[in-house]
Amino acid sequence: MTLTNQIGIFGTSGMAREAGDIAWALGLEPIYVARDEAELQAWSFSAQVVVEQDVEQYSDMPFVIGIGENYIRRAVAERFKDSLQFINLIHPSATFGCGQRDMIERCKGTIVAAGARFTSGIAVGDFCIFNQNITVAHDCLVDSYVHMAPGANLSGNVHLKQGSWVGAGAVVNQGSNSEKRVVGENTMVGSGAVVIKDCEANAVYAGVPAKRIK
Length: 214
Known about the structure:
alpha/beta, single chain, 8-stranded mixed beta sheet, UDP N-Acetylglucosamine Acyltransferase, domain 1, 4 helices, Rossmann fold, globular
C-alpha cells in the first residue's frame, strides 16, 4: 500500500481520530493535519499534528481525509488532488463479498471503519466514509463523497448519490433490479430513519417511515 509507515490524516476532530485508529490497526502512524493555527493550538492529544499550509512538505506520505462533513472533505480533496497521494484506509475487521475488496481498492481516499460489511455487486466512488458497523447489501451504487454513519444499513439495489449522508442506525430499504431506491445528491437521512421511498436531492429526511422535513 505504501513504502512509509506514516499516513497523513486531514482533520483533528473525532472522525479524524477514528481514522487514526484504523491507521494504527494497519501498523501506520497517523500524522494529523489541522486547518489553521487555532485548530493546532486546540489539539490536546499526543499524536503529531501539522498545519495544512505546511502539508505539502509531507508529499512523500500517503493521505486520507478524516473529515465527516462531505462538502469540506470534497473541498480538501480538490485543493490537494494534484500535489498529494490519497489512498484508501480499510480496517482489517471489515468484510467483503466476492471481488468487493478489489472494488474498494480501485477507489481513492475512501475510509472503511471497523465492522463494515459489503456483500456483492456493489460500486463505490472516491472519498467516501463508511463508519463502524455499516452494511451495504447487494447491487448498491454509492457515489463519491458519501458518508454512512455508524450502524447505517443499505438494503439491496440502493443508489446513494454524490454528497449524501445516511445517519447513524438509519435504514434505506431495498429497490429493485430495474429501479434502485435513490437518496438524492447532498441529501441527509437522519439517524434512525427508515427510507421506503426515493429521497429528493438537497433535502433532509427523518422519521419512520422517512419524510422530508427540510
